[in-house]
Amino acid sequence: MMVIKFVRCVLLDVILLACIVPAVSSSGSDFTSTVKRFPSISNLDGICTLTNSSGDDGPAFTAAILSDQCSTVNIPAGTTINIASPLNTSATYNKHISLAGTLSFTDDTTYWQQNSFKFTYQNATTFWLLGGKNISLYGGGTIQGNGQAWYNLYSTNSSVLRPIPLTIYEAINIVVRDITVLQTPFWNFFVSDSKKIVFDDITLHSTSTIAGIDAKNTDGWDIYRSDDVTITNSQITNQDDCVSFKPNSTNVLVQNLICNGSHGISVGSLGQYNGEFDLVENVSVSNIHMLNAQNGVRIKSWAGPNVGSGLVKNISYSHWQEDNVDNPIIIDSCFMTNTTTCTQYPSKVPTEDVYISYINGTSSGQEQSVVVNLNCSPGGTCSNIKLDNIALSPPAKYGLATYLCANIKVLGNAASLFNC
Ligand SMILES: *[C@@H]1O[C@H](CO)[C@@H](O)[C@H](O)[C@H]1NC(C)=O
Ligand SMILES: *[C@@H]1O[C@H](CO)[C@@H](O)[C@H](O)[C@H]1NC(C)=O
Ligand SMILES: *[C@@H]1O[C@H](CO)[C@@H](O)[C@H](O)[C@H]1NC(C)=O
Ligand SMILES: *[C@@H]1O[C@H](CO)[C@@H](O)[C@H](O)[C@H]1NC(C)=O
Ligand SMILES: *[C@@H]1O[C@H](CO)[C@@H](O)[C@H](O)[C@H]1NC(C)=O
Ligand SMILES: *[C@@H]1O[C@H](CO)[C@@H](O)[C@H](O)[C@H]1NC(C)=O
Ligand SMILES: *[C@@H]1O[C@H](CO)[C@@H](O)[C@H](O)[C@H]1NC(C)=O
Ligand SMILES: *[C@@H]1O[C@H](CO)[C@@H](O)[C@H](O)[C@H]1NC(C)=O
Ligand SMILES: *[C@@H]1O[C@H](CO)[C@@H](O)[C@H](O)[C@H]1NC(C)=O
Ligand SMILES: *[C@@H]1O[C@H](CO)[C@@H](O)[C@H](O)[C@H]1NC(C)=O
Ligand SMILES: *[C@@H]1O[C@H](CO)[C@@H](O)[C@H](O)[C@H]1NC(C)=O
């Protein structure tokens, strides 16, 4: 009897609520142990349902995820659980987390600055560390970051470390599907030291409601030291990178995104830290609608004294529509330096085998007539960069499009558009 119920749940796991109903309405007595310390969890046949305790639901949520008694942790539609303490679910195995309701992080900025989990990389901090193996998070629900208090505070003090709602750390085989994240204080998702990670059908929306204060650094995804990551079928409104491939992102597929208001889909920046080697290899980004953005296609690496090294290899950007984008295509291998310094200390991040094709649309006019800028470092660091079927124009008042390049031999049928 119980076995049959479980088989049904596994088969129906994409529409989990449909399988909870029969499990709950039958006796459920096969599985009697409840996680007793936390009255806000009820447990039936391995499905642990959280209810709102009116206090901090963080410990109950963590206990349910880490409990062997709960193969599924369920936050039903209409339920908001409030999280007022950090969630460490690092050692999680074989778990469904069905979030149909809302997971809301409190906006006690003083508390969280002291108590969030801290990373060395870019001083990132997080509310929730999720790691382990074979975990899925799905259900149509919302993670509410309550970021406005953070945007306000950061506008007065840029030393404030703002937490990331969900960090996937030291994890393998994770699926995050059909989830919305609202008002993130900082990046939406950080994927670090992980592999086989899938994000699908994700909605991200972070905007400040106060004029003059921005929702800064609200990147969609930052991928770091991770392999085999897929991000598909998602829409993002934010105020920093839509997706960012940080050091040692390999084998990443990004498809079917609408990015609104972002800073583009970026490789880098790489080679920032002296003594470190940053690799980004095998990245494919296709079917993108990029609008109202600072950048579209972007690859940036540092040059100058005391910087690091690395390699950018086999990157493909294809089938993009861009509207109102300041820099629709930009490669900058002299990031944070001027021409003189970049000549003296060229980039140590060779950029090779980059294929950019079928990119159309309009720039914003921020760079006047310039629609593409391929600013490679002296020293021949860019090689085999190919552009095909590029149709970009500036606003009519700037006339014909300008395609800029330096220290590069552009290949492909768009080569004739360039001045170098
Ligand atoms: C849960 O908690 C919040 C804040 O305490 C409250 O506003 C909400 O109505 C509660 N109830 C449910 C069912 O989520
Ligand atoms: C999170 O929990 C894991 C497993 O219990 C532990 O090893 C790790 O130190 C904890 N991480 C933090 C940052 O507290
Ligand atoms: C993954 O976890 C689910 C949920 O607990 C479980 O049903 C499934 O068997 C697990 N898969 C593997 C390969 O362990
Ligand atoms: C991290 O914080 C330290 C100390 O506040 C600061 O010196 C450093 O510049 C910060 N690094 C980044 C990448 O923000
Ligand atoms: C800015 O925030 C940092 C980090 O919380 C804190 O140490 C510092 O005192 C704050 N500065 C001011 C002027 O409030
Ligand atoms: C893009 O974001 C802006 C600012 O939040 C919003 O007004 C606009 O409706 C969004 N456009 C689309 C197509 O989502
Ligand atoms: C990236 O991976 C290479 C090995 O491919 C390693 O040598 C390097 O230290 C890694 N860099 C970072 C920033 O993790
Ligand atoms: C380039 O990367 C793609 C994935 O984006 C992969 O399918 C392809 O095999 C790679 N090509 C080479 C030559 O490594
Ligand atoms: C890139 O893809 C190629 C072809 O699949 C593979 O041989 C190579 O190992 C991949 N590179 C990395 C860093 O995973
Ligand atoms: C370039 O940058 C270097 C180092 O910051 C500075 O010393 C130099 O004056 C700058 N040169 C120009 C032409 O701006
Ligand atoms: C741009 O490309 C998209 C999708 O490939 C296509 O639907 C659209 O008509 C194109 N627009 C222009 C102006 O070429």
UniProtKB/TrEMBL annotation:
GO annotation, cellular component aspect: extracellular region
One Pfam family linked to the record: Glyco_hydro_28
Signal peptide (residue range): 1-26
Family: Belongs to the glycosyl hydrolase 28 family.
Chain's role: Specific in hydrolyzing the terminal glycosidic bond of polygalacturonic acid and oligogalacturonates.
Full protein name: galacturonan 1,4-alpha-galacturonidase
UniProt-listed Enzyme Commission number(s): 3.2.1.67
GO MF term list: galacturan 1,4-alpha-galacturonidase activity; polygalacturonase activity
